[in-house]
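look at this one:
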Amino acid sequence: MELKDFADIEKATKRSRREFSRLGLGLIFVVCIMIYTALGLGVTGTQGIMLVVASMIGGYMAMNIGANDVANNVGPAVGSRAISMAGAIVIAAIFEMAGALIAGGDVVSTIRSGIINPDAITDSNRFIWLMTAALLAGALWLNFATAVGAPVSTTHSIVGAVLGAGIAAGGMQAANWGTLGGIAASWIISPVLGGAIAAAFLFWIKRAITYKPDMIAAAQRTVPILIGLMAFAFATYLILKGLNKIWKVDVITASVIGAAIGIVVYFLMAKYVAGRTHSLENTKASINTLFTVPLICAAALLSFAHGANDVANAVGPLAAIADTVVHAQVAQKASIPLWVMMVGAIGISLGLSLYGPKLIRTVGSEITELDQMRAFCIAMSAAVTVIVASQLGLPVSSTHIALGGVFGVGFLREFIKTNYSKMLDDIKEHHPGEDRAVVESFLDRFREADVDEKQAMLKQLKARTAQADLSKRERKQMRKVYRHELVKRSAVFKIAAAWIITVPASALMAAMIYFMIFGIVHA
């Protein structure tokens, strides 16, 4: 056996050790939940056993939410190299847990999002089986999606699972089909809105900063405005969505408070940028560094809001089961005990730490190339889209918004590249046939001009009728060079397919699991 073979064996052994370590830590967490619920709550009987099982599944579900969904909050920041993978995981874990425990709320709907008619399922045993099946199916689907590297909506996963188990328990009349229509609409609304807003912000940055000859002066004018808008958007977003469980305010009040915070941040950033720009070079890479700290703050705030809102996806069914066991009846609303909230908060953080890096890399670098400016636009779109959609009453998914933002930024870059290649073609086709040096000189001046000057140069050039001395083959080859795909198509198709089948797949799995539980209990 050669030395190279020993090295390969050593690498494989290290990978196996890491996998077993992650699996072991996850199992320890689930076993601790089992011990606490079995011995600490004092529940007995069949329903007590089901509560122990459901609490273990709830912990498993929470870990899968952390592994899959949190990547959307920190992936762009990691992909743009604004923060390291380890730093992102630490920040996200802390703020996810803080959001869940501080603002996660104390009451949750027992029938997730009104997807099931509670009058159709009044038997407490059937209700417990239904919710247990929904928890396990949602967790298994998230686990599968994480394994194949597809970021999916955890809300859609658990909604689909509750739907499938509910139909299995109460028949087709148990489903609220009107709610399902809104969920289906969000498949289109969320990514389109997120992509359009992210692309709009990136186009603004390009027009206002990176297309200017003096990018330093342009950044001094524009960056404080952008960061101030970001502060306004995130403050409003957190007040409306992150703190709505503990502080109820209307959108006007939240917007006024957000605007005040945004104005303060604008003046602070104006001073900061003025001081920083003296030491910066007039390059895009230097301007990118101005967005690093705002990106880190955005990742933390998005994680806090996610923990506050999406913890119910992990612990909602578990809280419903616990409430049903304690009160021996099915209730419309259930209080969330502290131990249930801890299961969700710790599970999300643990899942992120153990299995989150794979999806973080997918979101941050495997769909399209991101820098700090592009990542900033994605973070902005996440906050702005949720605010706009919630006020319009549109159902949206934070996962779909974030991924839509990534797609929007990538496809805008493709459009700009294609458009620029057409401009170069126009220049060479309409330039009067001077020698190569004259053409290159014109192209150099064109590249250095700002947007308005470029348009004026093209307009003057197109007024001439002479054609460039280029063959058809040369023009075709030139277009092919610039027709470069900046968004990985296979990733787009894989993620879109996963989005479409999330609800039906989790529903089918939940129905099957419900019938298995029903068969075991009545065997």
Q: What stands out?
A: The two ends are 56 Å apart (CA to CA). The mean pLDDT is 81.
